[in-house]
Amino acid sequence: MELFSSAWLSALLAIVLIDLVLAGDNAIVIALAARNLPSHLQKRAIVWGTVGAVVVRSLMTLGVVWLLKIPGLMLVGGLGLVWIAYKLLVPQEGEHAHGAMATTFWGAMKTIVVADALMGVDNVLGVAGAAHGAFDLVVIGLLISVPIVVWGSTLVLKLVERFPIITYAGAGVLAYTAAHMIVSEPLLDDVFDPSMLNRVVAHAAVIAGVLAAGWWAAHRHARARMSTT
Fold first, then answer.
1. 3-state helix, strand, coil in the chain (%, to 5)
2. What is the pLDDT of residue 96?
3. For residue 128, what are the domain limits?
4. What is the Cα 137 distance to its own chain's centre?
5. Is 48 exposed, middle or buried (0-12, 13-18, 19+ CB in 10 A)?
6. pLDDT-above-90 percentage for the chain
7. Burial degree of 165 (CB within 10 A; 0-12, 13-18, 19+)
8. What is the Cα–Cα distance from 229 to 225, expressed in whole angstroms?
9. Nearest-5° angle of CA 100, CA 126, CA 58?
């Protein structure tokens, strides 16, 4: 594809738009994973979490042809993301309600990188398709998305600190992404393709299940803390 040709520019626009959408999911994961860190580590977690997201997505884009050959990959990635969305709502031992699944810097990094890898399966396929084999377009799109993810993570973190209930909205977005990956699994085409209703029900069930399970676990944790004080 010729540099700066109309086809190149239109492909770049498509990739930037895709990356803008993906930046929202990345920002939510990074903010939720970093919210229980000390304030002096939160900014570091945002920066390095963004770097990790870009590196993971770049590596996955390079291997997208190989990834396409793995049966069940979208299903496994979706189920993994369901678990992460749930765990981001569940307090751990020694944490208050609405705690994150990690209170250390490296624990937050692990959460961010794993979540980015799982979400990246669906995202990379879209970006690679829009790039039509031009890896320079993928790199430019990723570079453009970096400041968006950093800014978005900072904004979400501030909102979560002020309004903890936003944690549930963030987990809901991740659950939606997970449901989209699951219903997009080619192995399940016979289940979801014949009826749009099946897709809607699957999305609603995953989102409601994650939020309900997270709420129940958080309140059970809060009652347990009250009974020991």
1. 80, 0, 20
2. 43
3. 8-227
4. 22
5. middle
6. 6
7. exposed
8. 6
9. 65
Q: In this structure, what token pair is assigned to residue 172? A: 């809901």
Domain membership flag for residue 1? no
Judge whether 104 lies within some domain: yes
Asked if the structure places residue 32 within a domain, the reply is yes
Residues 95-141 have pLDDT tens digits of 444 444 455 788 888 878 787 777 666 666 666 656 666 767 767 77
Q: Compute the average pLDDT of residues 214-218.
A: 88
Does a structural domain hold residue 2? no
Compute the C-alpha angle 59/61/66, nearest 5°: 95
**Tokens 């903010």 belong to residue:** 31
> pTM for the whole thing?
0.67
Number of compact structural domains in the chain: 1
Q: Are 111 and 101 within 8 A, CB to CB? A: yes
Q: Quick check: 49 and 34 in contact, CB under 8 A?
A: yes
Given phi > 0 = left and psi -120 to 50 = alpha, else beta, which region is 52?
alpha
- The answer to whether residues 145 and 22 touch, using CB atoms and an 8 Å cutoff, is yes
